[in-house]
Amino acid sequence: MDNHLSSVKNSCRLLKTFLDSDKEMGVSELSRQLQLSKGAVHKLLMTLESEGFIKQNPANKQYSLGYTLLELGNKVLRNHDLSEFAKPFLRKLAESTNELVCLCVQDEFDAIYVDKIDSKYPIRFNVEAYRRFPLYATSAARVILAFQDDEVIDHILSGEIRTFTPYSLKDPAGIKERLHAIRQRGYEMSSNLRNEGVTGIAAPIRDANGAVNASISIIGPSDRVVPVYQNFIDQVLATTREISSQLGYRGK
Amino acid sequence: MDNHLSSVKNSCRLLKTFLDSDKEMGVSELSRQLQLSKGAVHKLLMTLESEGFIKQNPANKQYSLGYTLLELGNKVLRNHDLSEFAKPFLRKLAESTNELVCLCVQDEFDAIYVDKIDSKYPIRFNVEAYRRFPLYATSAARVILAFQDDEVIDHILSGEIRTFTPYSLKDPAGIKERLHAIRQRGYEMSSNLRNEGVTGIAAPIRDANGAVNASISIIGPSDRVVPVYQNFIDQVLATTREISSQLGYRGK
DNA sequence: ATGATTGTTCTCTATACGTGAACATCGTTT
DNA sequence: AAACGATGTTCACGTATAGAGAACAATCAT
């Protein structure tokens, strides 16, 4: 870990520990989780609080994330051209399918839903926006991963593979085969791999250079989605091709 | 600036400079804005990037905010009990008024809209959620400020007063009078102070101790809102009183 | 080609960081 | 009440390190 500012790194780690906790946290608990002295954690908190990144509950002296992070997070979205650009396409797709439609992007070795439009049906599936998940886990993510360099794929598959249902893919070789198949046919469809009874259909968005960093997917209860899957595949592909073309992509 | 970690403070300042810029920024520009050496800024960026708080565009080497901030910002909202709790009340109010309805909270010496439901009318006014603004600037904010301690009020009014329209309040003494009036009657209504042709009606939410940290407001074009203002005042007051009461407030 | 920008790397010293322990405040338990 | 255990907060100190400044590399414009 050279040329890294240790206290800055610690402050980042501190903020991120709040992601895995639903409650406020105190100095002692943070000091345990981060393996830092209480004094150091306290100084970190004082500094972060003075900048609005952390706020302290006066009643119980516990700390939680501050509103400045809300501002910054929102700014990420507003600076994110693609979500602005893709919005009308998502809306159109949501209207014609009535199912959950998501815009997924890659960030390092994770995937994130940066936008979504919920299904109108009373019985519908839901995803959590803005939360990271592994690139091998969902249709929307795999359809991005499939177009990455082999080194990236190998690096990700050489790590621990998390499973979510009894059907989740867990064999690296099997996943790799599947990725090649996706690359061949240009889309992905899967059921039960992330959530039982749920089917996702996803296609990649290409930028002007042909690189894939994002995808659009339709997700819904299998008994509604599977009977019309060919129609949905056609619609997602039509949408992502139109977007890719408007982004300057000149491929098939 | 004692017992503050300077590099952490710098990293916070660095992230916040992106709030006032709509584009990516490079080392040199940041170094100028922050008055830090290029080397120092570079190290900050490397560290923040390794934690996902910053990302670099490989094409032009410029930097922008990273997706981890999106995660953290979203977490702030999910941890914010009030917005979850107030949601159904907002929806009801939006449905019966058809105008923009906002939930506003105080953070230090600023106000932030943490939730809103847009008007259904084709001609409608819009606010930017999650962005700070001064506590004296809008109805929603003033109705919170009015119930703060005098020291807080004086501190805020002793600073620079920003104006937004030719009608914006700018005389500290006049604002203070207005705040007292708000306190008397329990709500605020104003036109043209933040945006010309726009009228806001706001009432405070009280917690179990009677403290005011949030408000609900109805905002819309004056020619639609003013004619029915008494009705809207009654509805906002009924809503905030119901919420306050459910939060444990036992006042009038 | 030249020059003026950039981003990145390097060396070096003042200092700011993190530790560890002491102190202060809480609730609980006995 | 009194003693305990847990908290959050403060402090002094030595070492690791953060930040300055200059050199280097890589662009882009002229």
Indicate the percent of residues in helices of chain A. 40-55%
Mean pLDDT of chain A: 91
Described by its quaternary structure, the protein is homodimer
What distance lies between the first and last C-alpha atoms of chain A, to the nearest angstrom? Answer: 44 Å
Rg of chain A, Cα atoms, Å: 21 Å
Identify the CATH architecture of the largest domain in chain A: 2-Layer Sandwich
CATH domain class name of the largest domain in chain A: Alpha Beta
Number of helices of chain A: 10
Strand order in the largest sheet of chain A: 5-4-3-8-7-6
CATH topology of the largest domain in chain A: Beta-Lactamase
Question: Which stretches of chain A are low in confidence, meaning pLDDT under 50 for 5 or more residues running?
Answer: none
DSSP strand count of chain A: 8
Helix-strand makeup class of chain A: alpha+beta
Which overall shape of chain A is indicated by the principal axes computed on the Cα atoms?
elongated
Topology:
Two copies of one chain form a homodimer.
Chain A: H1 6-17, H2 27-34, H3 38-50, E1 54-56, E2 63-65, H4 67-79, H5 81-97, E3 100-107, E4 110-117, E5 133-134, H6 139-145, H7 150-158, H8 172-185, E6 188-191, E7 198-206, E8 212-221, H9 222-225, H10 229-246
Antiparallel strand pairs in A: 1-2, 3-4, 3-8, 4-5, 6-7, 7-8
Helix pairs in contact in A: 1-3, 2-3, 5-10
Chain A binds a DNA duplex (30 and 30 nucleotides) through residues 3, 5-7, 10, 26-28, 36-40, 42-43, 61.
